Amino acid sequence: MNPPDFNDPQDHNKDNIYEVEVTFINLEDGAIEVPVPVTQFQLQVPEGTTSALELQSRPALPDDDFDSDGVPDIIDNSPVVFNPNQADEDGDGVGDVSDDADHDGVWNPQDKCPDTPLGVRVDTFGCEIFYLPSNNFNVYKKEKCVDNHSIGISFEDTSYSYTINISGAIDYSEVTDKKEWIISNLSSGQYSICIGADGISSDEFERCFEVQLIDPLPLSVYSNESNFTASVDGSSDSVQLEMAGGSVYNIELNGLTTQTSRSSYSLTLRKGLNTVSVSTDQECQGVFEKEYFNSESVAYTPNPFGDELSIYVGGQDENVLVEIFTTSGKLIRSDYYLLNAANRNISVNTSGFKMGGYLFKVNGNTVKNSFIAIKK
Questions:
Q1: What is the CATH code for 298-375?
Q2: Residues 245-278: pLDDT tens digits?
Q3: Which of 30, 129, 231, 276 sits most deeply, having the most CB atoms within 10 A of its CB?
Q4: Which distant-in-sequence residues (6+ apart) come within 8 Å of 65 by Cβ?
Q5: Where are the domains of the chain?
Q6: Under CATH, which architecture does the 134-213 domain have?
Q7: CA atoms of 83 and 63, how far apart (whole Å)
Q8: Hey, what CATH topology would domain 220-295 get?
Q9: Whole-number Å distance between alpha carbons of 151 and 209
Q10: What are the beta bridge partners of residue 368?
Q11: DSSP 8-state symbol, 5
């Protein structure tokens, strides 16, 4: 093939069509087979397109006659179609039985529209058909609460009015000339969306899409227990949330909201009472709410105790309530103790206690702890 010469383009018949000549040869020296073209001799591509032309040939011996028309293939102007008279009305070297004058891919004998413009789409009879590219339609969905889903379509080319036919969970039809079209308040289910151009038969042009709408699952959140006691390394100052049912989660901790798409999330708690709520972007999925108390540390000694029990309270609470119960649940003492940063110890006089076990509860703004100690 001679490479294109853009400075001196070939245009033998002066029709303003750039010409490239292709010659088929057999690269095997001494071979008697001759390459016989089986595609059109003259092919055209509309300017500005990226279409690729496929040129095909088949090897033939000097006496081969594929179509049995009495004309050897190597000189037959239509080697694959019976053409004994070798008629070639336009003299382009291609027999009339397989010629394609308007280059639409339909041979002249079957072409009912022999002068279709170059590059247009045609049917099996060679006649122009209506066409829109696949990217002309963008079909999308929004899944919300039950019976509140929606399906939308955006149109790239707004010079047409479009017919929209929906079947499946509902049957609905509409014509729109808007750039954006939306149908709302849909239930879950399978929908078939077929789009056509108004005034154009669906047999000629129609694009169909399948859309499935699914109801969201209820919000599910699993977490630790509600009460914590601070450890020396601070590892107990967090709560792990395991969430399911949403695509995005809104997590509110003590009035501050964080948004995440992760199904597992860790929250660092302040000392004292913490309020946590979790929701999604769909109100119908519900809301998870829980309070967590992250207590300062509490230590006591000795155990068993005698006439006095010493209790250490971590943190900075200045007013702490100590309640003492019998093992049967009877409250026998309830006292408030004042503490400061220099002294965090509480001395409890237990000289009047009988032998046995006692439940101690220590409560403050940032303290909530209980333990059982034994009077010896």
A1: 2.60.40.3080
A2: 888 999 999 999 999 999 999 999 998 999 999 9
A3: 276
A4: 71, 72, 73, 76
A5: 1-98, 134-213, 220-295, 298-375
A6: Sandwich (2.60)
A7: 16
A8: Immunoglobulin-like (2.60.40)
A9: 11
A10: 363
A11: -
